[in-house]
Amino acid sequence: MTKDSSEKSPLISQSVLKSYDRKSEENFDNGVIATESSESGSIGSGVYTYTARQKRVLVQMATANFCHTVCFSLIAPFFPNEAEQKGATPAQIGLIFSVFELVIFICSPIFGRYITVIGSRFMYIMGLFVCGATTILFGFLNLAPDGGMFVGLCFAVRITEAIAATSFVTASYAIIANEFTGRVATVFGLLETFTGLGLMVGPPIGGLLYGAGGFFLPFVLMGSLMMLCVAVSICGLPKQEDNVVRKGHSFLTILVIPTVLLSALTIASAAMTITAVEPVLEPHLRQFGLGPELVGLVFLSMSGLYTLTAPLWGYLSDRYSHAKWFMVAGCACCFIGTMFIGPSPLFTMLFNMKPALWLTVISLGFMGVGVGLQLVPPFKDCLTQALEYGFPDNFETYGLVSGLFASTFAFGAFFGPSVGGVLVQVIGFAWTGTCIACIHVILLVNLLIFLGLQYQKDKLPRELTKEERQILQDLSQSIEGVGSSERKVSIVQQAPSYQFYRQFSSSYQEDYPHQKSDNAHGV
């Protein structure tokens, strides 16, 4: 079976073929062991063990993700006050914060497209290095002259840090897709846990270090830790096989795939939900008379649940190929959370519902769970759908999907606080939550329509192409020594879209009539 033939077949999941090739060539070195399974729609039902190489990559990326998000978020408690003393206006301070996401939104597709030219390992390490250097440099900005010079230098350093972060994040997503075939979503969920932890502890760490050593200490200490991550990555990050011949695909060619576009909109809406609510939540909580400590705990009800549940959604997404249904559940949870957090004036008019602390906490919990469901499964779903639409199973596609995820998340993260702040000023907190809930309802309806159309399409019989028949024949011959026909079908069933087996089952039995009786019992 040649790689070219598999690339021409959108029905046959190429991640399965790649996984099987690795098993044959590397004696199960990637840690996936296929076992018998008759459960429709499940993947990864066998035992999965991580190799030493995979563990090394996972530990390095988890540590780097944690340090990077701490560096990104540690300025929140003290920078606004310092910047005001240096002559920056509130609008300029807000832009210094938000320009980070704007740069990521612009640069991610560029890095994703040219990852095979630059090299994923080089992008990862250089991104980490520049992130560490700019973090340290930021600690010296309080020595700059007041006024325009200080503001300009802040923008310059922040934009440079954002470009480096784009390089690091895009490369890390692509390396995950390459290193953890069959467990992309699980590993992505684990890394999101460390990202969430970094965002949670970053502000407290920044405040403590600022109190202990002033403006200089937080940046120099965390920047130095980033440099340590760079040294570890240089020594321990394996070389990636990313020197592939580019097929000329672009960001737009993958975004026009309908199912990928839906996943991208889901990612953007999740990022928008987080960033639109967090900046305006504290004024809403003032009516309950909470101290700063309790306000911080209320914030944790959303970010904490997201951090805790992200690995679970990744595991379930790998085990069951129903990513769109996870997204539907995420939209529903976010709808409930944003409708009740105010609560919505509609509830006030209909049921005389009043704001309450317990209602706010529960609503934030729903939002934390919903955001996890909207962020973790879509990454693997975009990758799977791109492969099934004929994109090559190599670093070119991994880079495009990584750039897509980073860019759409950054778009939502930039759009959320910008529009959310304006809406709160004009229509108030409760109506703002209702507007966000409407976005989730629209997305939920579109997802359900898509799933309904896909179900109807899957029921239609379809004649196999010549390339698909050849792939099936080669696959049957290459796993002939594995065992029973049920065992063979089990390996085929590892495909993220098991529907393809049902679509060609009749043709498969015509080609292999001696297996009819076995398949009747096995599938």
Q: Decide which structural class fits the backbone.
A: mainly alpha
- How many helix segments? 22
For the biggest β-sheet, the strand order reads: 1-2
Shape: globular
Note the gap between the termini.
25 Å
The major β-sheet equals: 2 strands, antiparallel
What amount of the residues lies in strands?
under 5%
Q: What string gives the helices and strands in order?
A: HHEEHHHHHHHHHHHHHHHHHHHH
Mean pLDDT: 79
Total beta strands = 2
Tell me the helix content: over 70%
Rg result: 24 Å
Could you characterize the architecture of this molecule?
The protein is an all-alpha fold. The protein contains 22 helices and two strands. The model is unreliable at 1-46 and 482-523 (pLDDT under 50).
